[in-house]
Design brief:
The complex is a heterodimer of chains A (153) and B (151). With 153 residues, chain A is of the alpha+beta class. Chain A has five helices and five strands. The two termini of chain A are 18 Å apart. Classes of the chains: A alpha+beta (153), B alpha+beta (151). Strand 1 of chain A pairs antiparallel with strand 1 of chain B.
């Protein structure tokens, strides 16, 4: 793991807010030259700390009114391969995230849909028919907050 | 309302968030000016909220991520508010979600290692108010994570 100083933390924070800022604009803010800023950003990327960028869209304004989290248990008896399940579930466009977890369920999915009937369609036609899918629990998302975490990002 | 061209722009942009307006225009076969105007409009309308860097907490030394599913004692009217207000104060809580379903609230907690997690769990999580039940799911791997919308 690489050593990070205060400027690195500030840089990460600034990039999380807006990754479109140029190295020179960021440098000006933190009193660094453009090449020095660029080197710092490069170093954060090389260390895998900054993993890439994400386009933030307002799902609701785009017509996706429902987000549901699913806990899925695999039906063990079938001798299903995890790779087959993961490949099939990742290919579903409405499935936004797939996490392999330990505990009550085997997988945790984040699913978006236009409305509840649309969600039901995705659930019945695409999720329930996945190879090896067993018990499924659904919780409809009401609110969501992302916090800065221990580094105040 | 969005038309097909807006959606096409967003699809390309979502798949490659680093693309400049000029590159997006090229992908969609339109002029750079037209792409910039479309993007500007979608930003004004709040459809596009921005482009942000994605941080990998594991690379920052937080190797453990646990999803805590909490059921609250709802006999008290302020249970949700009390719980949420205090959960926000725990630095290692990076996500707070509320649900309609079997689970009331879910917290994403990160920790440096299992020892650190145990310490947070005992001193900061179990002391949160109005918990009726709590279940933990430990993340083994993130298989798909880009949170794209099916545009």
């Amino acid at each position: 793991m690489i050593e990070l100083d205060d400027i690195d933390h500030q840089l990460i924070k600034a990039l999380v807010r807006d990754a479109r800022q140029s190295a020179s604009a960021l440098g000006k803010r933190f009193g660094l030259s453009q090449p020095a800023t660029w080197r710092r950003i490069r170093r954060l990327e090389d260390a895998g700390i900054v993993m890439g960028k994400r386009l933030r869209l307002d799902a609701e304004k785009l017509g996706f009114g429902v987000t549901v989290f699913l806990g899925i248990k695999l039906a063990r008896k079938g001798g299903v391969s995890l790779e087959d399940f993961e490949r099939a579930v990742s290919a579903i466009p409405e499935v936004q995230t797939v996490e392999h977890v330990l505990g009550l369920y085997d997988y945790r999915l984040r699913v978006v849909a236009r409305d509840l009937p649309d969600f039901e369609r995705v659930l019945r036609r695409r999720i329930m028919t996945l190879p090896g899918a067993g018990e499924v629990e659904a919780n409809v998302l009401l609110s969501e907050e992302r916090l800065g975490g221990p580094l105040g990002l | 309302m969005l038309d097909d061209l807006d959606r096409r722009l967003l699809r390309y942009w979502q798949a490659e968030p680093s693309l400049s307006p000029g590159e997006l225009a090229e992908r969609c076969g339109i002029t750079a000016g037209k792409a910039a105007r479309r993007i500007g409009r979608m930003e004004e309308e709040g459809i596009v909220q921005g482009v942000g860097a994605v941080v990998n907490w594991a690379a920052l030394g937080y190797a453990v991520e646990v999803s805590l599913r909490v059921t609250l004692d709802k006999t008290l009217g302020t249970a949700f508010d009390d719980f949420l207000a205090q959960a926000r104060e725990v630095p290692e809580v990076i996500e707070v979600q509320t649900f309609l379903g079997r689970v009331d609230v879910r917290l994403s907690v990160i920790a440096r290692d299992m020892g650190h997690y145990q310490q947070i769990y005992r001193s900061r999580i179990l002391t949160l108010p109005h918990i009726a039940d709590i279940e933990a799911l430990m993340q083994v791997a993130r298989i798909k994570g880009e949170e794209a919308l099916p545009l």
